[in-house]
Amino acid sequence: MAPFGTWTAAQAFVLTSYLDGSDSCQQKGVVCANDIAVLALNPQRDAAGNEFYAGAATGWFAYAWDRFGFTTQNITHITQLGYPGCLDNAAMMERNDAQGAIDSTHSNNTIIGSLMCGGSSGGPWIINFGVQPNLTGTSFGAAPGPNQIIGTTSWGSTSNAVKWMGASPFVSGNIGQLVTAACKAYPETCKP
């Protein structure tokens, strides 16, 4: 998060099914339904001794689950962010915009076309990315909230011909449970 500072993790929250190998996976340990974790961070202190968390320095994204923002055809537009080693030697954050589609043959993961590679894992998949505009003569669609994370980069194709990546679906049974557990354990880390 340079130049904003460095935060350490207080605790990682991961579903037992992913850790013990009982998760539903198309490819064991890689293309799974619950390849998701939540980290509770320790605060930093400013010069006056006040505690603050990463979001106070960098800002926050929202998150959504249960196919929020997807059409009835199970597609949506996704902005992927990450630091892939194969693009600019991971020296800068890269952005990819692609159509995302739910793929039942890949543990219901969302699949996107992407040139990103190793190093981008864990990067957010965002719908409605950017500053929300003021509207004139129109209205927002069915999923209007800006900057909603609906997944994180989990895996990618090993083929040099096909460039695609996948993300475990954010559902109430995984991300919802993990965020609830993290907020219960560290309520001061959760933005109201």
Would you kindly provide a written description of the structure presented here, covering whatever features stand out?
The protein is mostly beta strands and about 190 residues long. It has a single domain, classed as Beta Barrel (Thrombin, subunit H). The protein is about 10% helix and about 30% strand. It has helices at about 15-20, 55-60, 170-185; strands at about 10-15, 25, 30, 35-40, 45, 50, 60-65, 75-80, 95-105, 110-115, 125, 150, 155, 165. Strands 7-12-11-8-9-10-14-13 form an 8-stranded mixed beta sheet, with no helix packed on it. Strands 1-4 form a two-stranded antiparallel ribbon. Strand 13 and strand 14 form a beta hairpin. The longest helix has 14 residues, at about 170-185. The protein is globular and about 55 Å long. It starts with 8 loop residues before the first strand and ends in a 7-residue tail after the last helix. The model has no long low-confidence stretch (mean pLDDT about 90).
- What would the principal axes of the Cα set say about the shape? globular
Using the coordinates shown, work out and report the CATH topology.
Answer: Thrombin, subunit H
The biggest beta sheet is recorded as:
8 strands, mixed
Q: Order of strands across the biggest sheet?
A: 7-12-11-8-9-10-14-13
Mean residue pLDDT: 92
Helix and strand run: EHEEEEEHEEEEEEEEH
How far apart the termini lie comes to 23 Å
Please report which band the strand proportion falls in: under 5%, 5-15%, 15-25%, 25-35%, 35-45% or over 45%: 25-35%
- Pick out the low-confidence regions: none
CATH class: Mainly Beta
Q: Number of folding domains?
A: 1
**CATH architect. name:** Beta Barrel
